[in-house]
Amino acid sequence: MNTEQCAKIKERDIRSPQFWKELAQSSKAHKGLPRSEKGSCWDQAAATYDDLEACSDYQFQVNTILETLKERGVLKKSARIIDIACGTGIYALRMAPMVKEVVCLDISKAMLDRLREKADKAGIDNIKIIQADWRNFETDEKFDLVFVSMTPLLRSMENVDRFLELSSRYVVFISWAGIRQNELVNRLSKEILGKEPDTTKMDIQFLFNYLYTKGLAPDLRFFRGCWERTRDADRHAEAIIWQLEMHRELSDEEKERIRKMVKGLAHNGMVTSKTKVRIAFMFIDKEADSFSC
Ligand SMILES: C[S@@+](CC[C@H](N)C(=O)[O-])C[C@H]1O[C@@H](n2cnc3c(N)ncnc32)[C@H](O)[C@@H]1O
After folding, report:
1. What confidence score (pLDDT) does residue 27 get?
2. What residue ranges define each of the domains in the chain, with the CATH number in brackets?
3. Rounded to an integer, what distance in angstroms lies between the CA atom of residue 78 and that of residue 281?
4. What is the pLDDT of residues 274-289, one digit of tens each?
5. What's the 126 CA to ligand 1 centre distance in angstroms?
6. Which of 182, 175, 150, 176 is CA-nearest to residue 275?
7. Helix/strand/coil for 178
8. How far is the CA of 95 from the centre of ligand 1 (A)?
9. Which range, of 1-5, 80-84, 141-145, 222-226, averages the lowest pLDDT?
10. Atom in ligand 1 nearest the alpha carbon of residue 37
11. Strand 127-131's sheet: what is its strand order?
């Protein structure tokens, strides 16, 4: 960036939320994967999504986040929570036994079917499931906690405004934070799509700066880890296919190539892949700064 461009940015006042909102909108790096807000793409993901729960680093992340919310008095018997883009309910179903009700909203029917199945199995009946696109969802209700994790919805600061508005006090945002490397996915992406996935997308720098310039100071914690998944070759290939299909629809021939390549890596029918990740957990208490001094 040259001095002239720098001076221009200073003029725009980096202390204004509008600046970060506009930057998030216009930044190429912040643009989402082309198909990541399509319910049908996430429907495909539902069958293998919960494989993540077998990874110890992921378990540590989920347990620590829930423990933190408990310690801060957020998860209590009187609390009503909304989990937006809840997916298969990995967090929602763990929070439900500790609170009055969890509203679980997601665009994908298959994700919510899986959530319902797990809730029934666990005998959890204080959840309300809503299949909806958040962008068209309207309600006059307020919730004690608005919980939003790992969704492309966090790219838009308009969505973020609406998440904040929906909460009477607490908000949680969880998102990728700069590191997301999976050698196998990179290799197949290069082979099929002609390029490695752009891991700068969905970073938290816009989100954090936007919240901060709005006068909020989210508590921020990073989780670093290795999400290691060992599964049979067919299942593994399906998981890679849905990830690549977030970029564009693959032809039957391309999917077959992926299945063959993954099978070629199998030992006793099983394939292991590792994703090196850094994840940000942001906790916002809208009343945090109303202390007297
Ligand atoms: C990576 S999953 C995260 C699931 C869950 N929050 C978690 O952390 O395990 C992303 C979720 O965002 C949902 N999603 C994407 N766009 C959406 C939209 N416009 N409205 C509601 N849900 C959406 C997808 O259906 C998917 O379940």
Report:
1. 75
2. 15-180+200-227+276-285 (3.40.50.150)
3. 24
4. 999 999 999 999 999 9
5. 21
6. 182
7. strand
8. 17
9. 1-5
10. 16
11. 127-131, 101-106, 80-84, 143-149, 167-182, 270-285, 219-232
